[in-house]
Design brief:
- This protein is of the alpha+beta class and 275 residues long.
- It has 2 domains: 148 residues, Fructose-1,6-Bisphosphatase, subunit A, domain 1 (Fructose-1,6-Bisphosphatase, Chain A, domain 1, 2-Layer Sandwich); 112 residues, D-Maltodextrin-Binding Protein, domain 2.
- The protein contains 7 helices and 14 strands.
- A hairpin with a 2-residue loop joins strand 5 and strand 6.
- Helix 4 crosses helix 7.
Length: 275
Amino acid sequence: MNLDALPSALAARDLLISAAREAGALALGFFRPGAATSAEVKAKHGGSPVTEADLAADALLRERLSAAFPSAGWLSEETADDPARLARRALLVADPIDGTRAFVAGDPRWAVSVALVVDGRPAAAVVHAAALDETYSAARGVGAELNGVPLRGRERSDRERLTAAGPRPILEAMAAKLRTRIEIVPRVPSMAYRLCMSAQGAVDFAAATENAHDWDIAAADLILEEAGLKLIEPAGVPLRYNTQRIRRGMLLAAPHALAPRLIEAFRSASRGRGG
């Protein structure tokens, strides 16, 4: 594939923002704050819900983005995986509604998550929380933004108390290893949005259990990186995308200044879970 045919990272980001906002507006037509969605809800294999809003947003994203990036492959939660994507240097990774259970229940903490991956790493990304009117975005080498305002994570001098988002068992195991108090914020249904909370500085770091998929994390990965954080598995190396493996182990999102301290505690928590 000729990478010269791809837009710049900044232009790609703007295209992703436009498509994500359009998909978010479509989904909002079915969303009922504090009440059950008006969309038809079905159960996928394994029991997780999917709605007509997920499928309509997925179709919209694929149509818009495939036209904008015709040589890129496609990977989405709501589309059967085509192994032909592995031969492409560019890949579009989408979750039309990350946090479908929240969407169904009227909880606004769901998001449209879209990334353009080039040579295994995200080059442009958007996490659009339509019901909250929050658009996180990033372009490689350009930076990350929330509604157009640059993001740089959280700078703290007080390390005796940390704030985190993620599963309580993991965070409590990390706190015991660190001998530090960790204040755990209430559960955030959308993994992409939860990770972006670290990029915003709403929490010091975030964690996730096993079984996240690439469509849950690819966009947030770049947003974190461009905001001065890293997203890693226990091995501590950057994640690679557009491989046969699309399901992940435990994940940690942490700023570079805190990462050395957090990684060993994270590894210990992972071992405690058999990871």
